[in-house]
């Protein structure tokens, strides 16, 4: 016996109406019941309803940035990140990044979704410093996120930052008043890692701002409390060992 007691009443009612009419009734999908409707439809393997839900989502995320951020949270919670619909939502989020990154609700997006967005080669940014500001803002939103500092900061391609921007990066850590020292330590560890200076050299990514050795820097100076670290690149940059490119459909 299926137990729907933990689901939204309106979501269950909509499901029953849809099933009673054999799918002929237009499902009344709204933001408030979207998550439960999606989960129930997947549980019952109702492909026709899932198709309608996916159509509703893709149209809505294109038209409404607030709904887009809400959907990023939903697909993360329901492990829909790698579905066809999930990948399309991320493509839209990457394109609308200049808008959604400034929204307060973006700081509520789960870690998995944040990492997938910030690590995309085709991320729509004016400069790499957009990623810096977004990463620090997301980490500072909740104290417990300090534990995710390395994972989030490693999305920053420090080779694309100007010297003054690298200095400003560490200045931003002061926004975490109670965790500034810990954050600085994480930042030092992250950017002292060879992988921090990765450069994507895929030919098809040449048009992306984040890809290619555009700066031509051979030396990096990073200021952290009580120390100065100089990195010298002696070998040509190589592509990271993990995915930095746009996922294939």
UniProtKB/TrEMBL annotation:
<protein>
    <recommendedName>
        <fullName>BACK domain-containing protein</fullName>
    </recommendedName>
</protein>
<feature type="domain" description="BACK">
    <location>
        <begin position="68"/>
        <end position="171"/>
    </location>
</feature>
<dbReference type="Pfam" id="PF07707">
    <property type="entry name" value="BACK"/>
</dbReference>
<dbReference type="InterPro" id="IPR011705">
    <property type="entry name" value="BACK"/>
</dbReference>
């Amino acid at each position: 016996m299926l137990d729907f007691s933990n689901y939204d009443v309106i979501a269950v009612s909509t499901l029953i109406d849809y099933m009673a009419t054999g799918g002929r009734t237009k499902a009344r999908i709204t933001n408030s019941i979207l998550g439960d409707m999606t989960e129930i439809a997947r549980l019952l393997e109702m492909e026709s309803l899932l198709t309608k839900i996916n159509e509703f989502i893709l149209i809505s995320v294109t038209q409404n940035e607030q709904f887009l951020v809400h959907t990023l949270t939903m697909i993360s919670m329901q492990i829909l990140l790698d579905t066809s619909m999930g990948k399309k939502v991320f493509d839209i989020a990457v394109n609308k990044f200049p808008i959604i990154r400034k929204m307060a609700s973006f700081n509520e997006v789960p870690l998995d979704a944040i990492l997938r967005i910030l690590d995309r080669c085709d991320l729509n940014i004016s400069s790499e410093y957009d990623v810096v500001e977004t990463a620090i803002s997301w980490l500072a939103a909740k104290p417990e996120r300090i534990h995710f500092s390395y994972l989030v900061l490693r999305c920053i391609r420090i080779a694309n930052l100007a010297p003054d921007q690298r200095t400003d990066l560490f200045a931003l850590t002061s926004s975490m008043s109670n965790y500034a020292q810990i954050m600085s330590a994480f930042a030092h560890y992250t950017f002292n890692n060879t992988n921090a200076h990765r450069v994507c050299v895929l030919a098809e990514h040449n048009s992306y701002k984040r890809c290619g050795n555009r700066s031509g820097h051979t030396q990096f100076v990073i200021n952290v409390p009580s120390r100065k670290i100089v990195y010298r690149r002696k070998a040509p940059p190589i592509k990271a060992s993990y995915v930095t490119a746009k996922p294939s459909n």
